[in-house]
Amino acid sequence: MKLKPLADKVLVKMLKQEEKTESGIIVSLNKRFNDTKGIVVELGSGKFCKNGKHAEFDVAVGDIVMFSQYSGDEYIMDGIKYKIMKEQEILCVLNKE
Length: 97
Fold this sequence. Notes:
6 strands; 10 Kd Chaperonin, Protein Cpn10, Chain O
């Protein structure tokens, strides 16, 4: 089965968060910012505009994004966690430099 978001929705595959910092400190469960980063795997058709066309997305498939912990709806399929959310719930795109 494949998930296909509709309209201005974005399907995001959740990224597993590290349990240690770069310096080797173990982060406790309640201090981790889990479920706030993911990779965009599918886009809907776009928000329907008054001119009869669909608006383009600011994010693209493959972008790593950050969002609020409580944004969107979480689903688990085949053991993988996904979130379906509106594009406006995405806070930023993380660029690898």
